[in-house]
Amino acid sequence: MHIPWCVRKCPYCDFNSHALSNAQQENLPEFEYVEALIRDLEQDLPRVWGRSITSIFFGGGTPSLFSAEAIDRLLSELRARLNINANAEITLEANPGTVEQQRFNEYRDAGINRLSIGVQSFNNDCLQALGRIHDRREAIRAAEIAHAAGFDNFNLDLMFALPAQTLSQAHEDVATAIDLEPTHISYYQLTLEPNTLFYAQPPKLPNEDLAWQIQSEGQELLAIADYRQYEVSAYAKDKYQCAHNKNYWQFGDYLGIGAGAHGKLTDASQQNITRLTKKRHPREYMETAGTPENIQSEKIVTRNEVGLEFMMNALRLTEGYESALFSKHTGQAITLVERALREAEEKQLIIWTTEKIKPTEKGQRFLDDLLALF
């Protein structure tokens, strides 16, 4: 469920997020947007009759700009319309600059059982270069508040290879994150994405060798602290891997509700996979939610595309995937990608057995080269 507003648009962000003016922050259209989300959901319900929900993810933008009452209303409406598993993982993204303990307590009471806090760095110079609205003190306080509010499962987002970042600064970021004892850490390199300010006006970033040293030494610190890498940029304590993201990486199905949201649904009876996107701009989305005009695009994934789409997700997993998962989630035989798999195996980018396909360490480091084979 996508909530598209934020206090400020970060210069590296390519998500569908819209900065609020001071006046807009005081008059956030919570009620109107919640009603639109419910209409959007009801329009998609016939696509998922009889299926159960294993996870819910409130992403943004900054979902923590919404009140606990709004989140509670949404979850109540979801429970009334969907078969949600009793142990479903329910995550809400939050930014340190929008955190207060009372609100975290109320989110937990509403049914949120996992937080994802967008720290990005604990270094004030790095945070300023990234255009973040919080500082080191607020970032640390956000994690402390999560613990105090009773969240025994939360993620910290951490970026590396930041503008002018040194190796010691990157080490300090990882060490600080570990000291705050989250159950999950997302640790990923800053990339310059099209349609962002950083892409148009690139900052000076660490060179490739330094970026690799930062990454590898950061990974070593995480491993020593028992954060196991299970995906290219995801590290978790035992039993705390993110169920929602693993569903993406295993090419599972998901509904996309909200402005600019993307969904992927498999129709077993027709043996096809459909990708849907919703209107991007919040105002246009709210005006059309629940009507056919709300759907920005609807596309059937072709047989030729499905192999690459599956591999783009599944090969991010450190332990790979069971070979049978390809047929189960694509409706196609593994022979569809056999030639590419053979070539990847010859180049020592994957290990392929009758039971499992997994990337090698080389394959994970050169993931783009691996995916290019498909």
How would you describe this protein?
By secondary structure, this protein is of the alpha/beta class. The chain has 2 domains: 247 residues, Aldolase class I (TIM Barrel, Alpha-Beta Barrel); 57 residues, Winged helix-like DNA-binding domain superfamily/Winged helix DNA-binding domain (Arc Repressor Mutant, subunit A). Helix content is 40%, strand content 22%. Helix 2 packs across helix 11.
Write the layout of secondary structure elements.
Blueprint: E1 2-3, E2 5-6, E3 18-19, H1 22-26, H2 30-44, E4 52-60, H3 68-81, E5 83-94, H4 101-110, E6 114-120, H5 124-129, H6 136-148, E7 154-160, H7 167-179, E8 184-189, H8 197-200, H9 208-224, E9 228-231, E10 234-236, H10 243-249, E11 262-267, E12 272-278, H11 282-288, E13 295-300, H12 303-314, E14 321-322, H13 324-330, H14 338-346, E15 350-352, E16 356-359, H15 361-365, H16 367-372
Parallel strand pairs: 1-4, 2-3, 4-5, 5-6, 6-7, 7-8
Antiparallel strand pairs: 8-10, 9-10, 11-12, 12-13, 14-16, 15-16
Helix pairs in contact: 2-3, 2-11, 3-4, 7-9
